[in-house]
Amino acid sequence: MKHFLTRRDFLKGTTSALLGASLAFGREGQAAKKARVVLIRHRDVLDENSKVNADILQGMLDESVARLLDQPDGVKAFQTLVKPGETVGIKTNVWSYLPTPPELEAAIKRRLVDAGIAPDKIGLDDHTVRTNPLFVNATSLINVRPCRTHYLAGMSGCIKNYIMFGESQPFYHPDSCADLGSLFKLPQVQGKTRLNILCVLTPQFHGRGPHHFSRRFVWNYKGLIVGQDPVAVDTIGLELIKAKRREVLGKAQELPPVPKHIQLADTRHGIGTSDLNAIEFIKLGWDEDIMI
Amino acid sequence: MKVRTSGRALFGATAGLLAALTVFPGGGAVGDFSDKIPRKVGAWAAVGEDRVYDRETLYDYMDGGAEVYLAFDFREAWTRKYADAGGRELALDIYDMGSPAEAFGIFSCDRQDPGASIGQDSEYGFGLLRFRQGRYFVTVTASVEDETVGEVILELGREVVKHLGPPGAGPDMLGFLPAAGLRPERTSYFHSNVNLNNRFFISSENILQLDRSTDCVFAEVEAGAGEAAFLLLLRYPDAEKAGAARRSFLAGYAPEAGADGLARAEDGKWVCASLSGRFLAVVFEAPTAEWASRLISSLPLPKK
Predict the structure, then answer these.
(1) What pTM does this model have?
(2) A238/B167 Cα distance (integer angstroms)
(3) What is the ipTM of this complex?
């Protein structure tokens, strides 16, 4: 029985169903709780020069996390994620071409402080998380990064964002980065991720050149995708990337190279769900050209 | 970190010894580019140290893209940044791909823009210049894209190509493609699954059993009504491996195919996988089964 994805699966228009079928396989009869993922968008979060409106972005973060956790506002929502006295690491992404927007990092940090975390107990880091004392001692992690395609992994999302916790990055490269999901089982990480934020303010749907970046493949989607399940969050992110690729590049290039690590994070590593049928997908805010 | 700096003052004894011991038929050792490539182009000047990356350190320069180069016979990359008074940056990268055929390969896997008439093959668009000359593949990338920056990029490219030595022949595999209906500017040459999947996604698994020992060309062929069919021609080290790859491909991709390797896909078009010695030809999205078989029969493959 074939369990992997081929071109023929998306000729049928059933790639999503197939990816989802992976979870159902072997789990019949289980009444799995759905993973909630919230997409929020705002028309005015970026201006005509793609500059971020920090106030609107803060509001988007608050509203989406509150909805995710069924809380009345952002502060109360963050209070359910972390407790005073904790050390919290914000795993960001500093890739020079498309980093996590500093306004988003600041918005997260602000709500952590509001939730009672001392400012000097909040780490913000990417490349040195393995040795940064605030990450070594962290009891909670917030995972945040932009959504983009990737030559090897197909998509760089919340799962791949933890590669810096690995001792060797090339160790995770074989077979199209198939085992990125195992990063979430590293002692420094396991059981600590409270929130995953996939920034889709300006997602990148295709790449070219040695660094896989060209501004022609970035668009102002003006959204955030948030959830507590990194696999579910990336699964929704992948749907967005696929939709944009289908629209701009054509159906033959709907899929970025091989986004298999998302599915395998579910089926092989069990850190979340890649089954769209097992995801409660909530959409908030601006819905023009929402695509998914 | 093993990255070497290669500024003139820093290009030391180790690199010099390497250069002396290594035969470079065209263009010289990549570290020599620090002396040869102009440090000023118009109002733009070199900033920081030139750097050299090898197969071990290329990961330090690229996020994920390194595998795309390592799947070829990549040897070293020489990089330099230029900046103007406004702080805008250009990145010049020169990759020694080991041979002209490999340089053609890395160039050919990512073609999209109009030609720029620089080197043997080139293209420019949206602040990205790509070209190949001899064993070298070159990119110039702008942090900001506008018309004036584009002119500087092209000027820099024209300066660089002067130092890359003579042109070289592309891969012999190109000679096995059909003459009729071929879209030559869309032909790609590579070895590994990572390159295939970036060019034309087939499977999340390596069902064609590709690795650095396989030579692959992917081509688009006019199939009527402005549409293209896709030809993937693969050369394995021996006929046994080619046969195993065909069995693996058909089992994973077209299990309903008979001995002729033909199957009708979900879009109504045909896929066909056919062996000839150590060559495996696979046609995707052919309008009819006969068209697919005819295309494969027309390939000028060697008899042995």
Answers:
(1) 0.85
(2) 42
(3) 0.81
